[in-house]
C-alpha cells in the first residue's frame, strides 16, 4: 500500500453517508489498486456469488485492473461496464499532481446494460459453474437505474476525492505515525488497548505520546481508539449478520452492556436500532 495517512473514522462516515443516500457501494483504493476502505465492507451477494466461479472471478479482477489502468492513464473519472454488464465509476484522487488513490462506486445495472434482462444474461451464466437459481433471484432484486444519474454520481465521487485531499483526511505520508498507529489499533482491535501498550509499541514516554497523538488526531489517543472501535462495530453491524455480543467481543469490549451504553452515547441509538436502520439495504442485494 502507498504510504498514506488517512482518518479512518472521518472517511468511514463519508462513505457510510454516501451509501445511505445512494444505496451504492463505495470504496477507496490506493495507487496499487488495493481496496482499503469501503461501505458496505463486503461485495454484493450477486457479485460474491459470481466470483465463486474461478473463471468469472478472474474476469472480475481483469475488469477492475483495466478500469483502474484507464483511469490512471487518462487521469480523470471513467464510467464503464464490467463483463457482467454492471456499471462502475472510478475517480482518481490527485494530490500535488500525483494520483494517490481512487474512489470507486458500483456495481449496478443501468438502462443501457446488455444484461439488464435475465434472459440475456442466462446463456452466459450457463457456461460457468455458478448457482443459477440464486443469481436469478438476486438479479430480480436489482433496481434498473437510468443513465441520467451517471453524471451526478461522477461529480459526487470527484467532490469526495477533492474533499479528502483538500482537508487532509487522505494524504501522502510525511510522518507515518498516524498510519502506523491506526494500523496497529485495527490489527489489535479485539484486544483491550491502553496507553501503556501503545507507548511500548512505539517507544514513547507517556507524556510525549499524549502530546504527539493529540496533535495528530485533535482528541486524546484513547478517545481515538474508542472511536475506531465503534466505527468498526458500525461497519460490522451494517454489513454482516454477526450477533451483536460477538461484535462487541471482536472490538475488545467483552462487557456487552458497556458496549451498548457507549454506542448509544456516541451514535444516539442502540446497536440493535442501528442495525435495523442500515442492514436492510446493505444486504438486500
UniProtKB/TrEMBL annotation:
UniProt entry keywords in alphabetical sequence: DNA-binding, Transcription, Transcription regulation
Domain of life: Bacteria
Transmembrane segments: none
Keyword Transcription attached: yes
The keyword Transcription regulation belongs to this UniProt entry's keyword annotation: yes
A GO molecular function held by the record: sequence-specific DNA binding
InterPro entries found in the cross-reference section: Homeodomain-like_sf, HTH_AraC, HTH_AraC-typ_CS, PocR_dom
Residues annotated as domain HTH araC/xylS-type: 179-277
Record Pfam families: HTH_18, PocR
Protein name: Helix-turn-helix domain-containing protein
Amino acid at each position: 500500500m502507498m504510504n498514506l495517512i488517512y482518518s479512518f473514522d472521518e472517511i468511514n462516515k463519508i462513505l457510510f453517508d454516501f451509501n445511505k443516500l445512494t444505496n451504492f457501494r463505495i470504496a477507496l483504493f490506493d495507487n496499487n489498486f488495493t481496496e482499503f476502505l469501503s461501505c458496505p465492507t463486503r461485495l454484493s451477494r450477486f457479485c460474491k456469488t459470481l466470483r465463486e466461479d474461478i473463471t468469472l472471478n478472474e474476469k472480475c479482477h481483469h475488469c477492475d485492473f483495466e478500469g483502474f489502468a484507464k483511469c490512471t492513464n487518462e487521469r480523470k473519472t471513467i464510467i464503464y461496464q464490467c463483463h457482467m454488464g454492471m456499471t462502475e465509476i472510478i475517480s482518481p484522487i490527485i494530490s500535488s499532481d500525483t494520483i494517490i488513490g481512487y474512489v470507486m462506486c458500483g456495481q449496478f445495472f443501468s438502462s443501457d446494460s446488455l444484461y439488464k434482462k435475465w434472459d440475456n444474461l442466462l446463456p452466459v451464466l450457463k457456461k460457468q459453474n455458478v448457482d443459477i437459481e440464486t443469481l436469478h433471484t438476486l438479479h430480480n432484486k436489482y433496481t434498473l437505474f437510468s443513465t441520467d444519474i451517471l453524471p451526478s454520481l461522477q461529480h459526487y465521487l470527484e467532490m469526495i476525492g477533492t474533499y479528502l485531499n483538500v482537508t487532509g483526511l487522505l494524504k501522502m505520508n510525511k510522518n507515518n505515525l498516524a498510519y502506523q498507529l491506526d494500523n496497529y489499533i485495527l490489527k489489535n482491535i479485539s484486544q483491550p488497548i491502553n496507553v501503556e501498550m501503545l507507548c511500548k509499541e512505539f517507544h514513547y514516554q507517556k507524556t510525549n505520546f499524549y502530546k504527539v497523538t493529540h496533535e495528530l488526531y485533535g482528541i486524546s489517543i484513547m478517545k481515538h481508539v474508542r472511536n475506531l472501535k465503534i466505527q468498526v462495530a458500525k461497519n460490522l453491524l451494517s454489513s454482516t449478520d454477526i450477533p451483536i455480543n460477538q461484535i462487541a467481543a471482536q472490538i475488545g469490549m467483552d462487557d456487552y452492556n458497556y458496549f451498548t451504553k457507549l454506542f448509544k452515547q456516541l451514535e444516539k441509538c442502540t446497536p440493535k436500532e442501528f442495525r435495523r436502520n442500515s442492514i436492510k439495504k446493505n444486504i438486500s442485494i
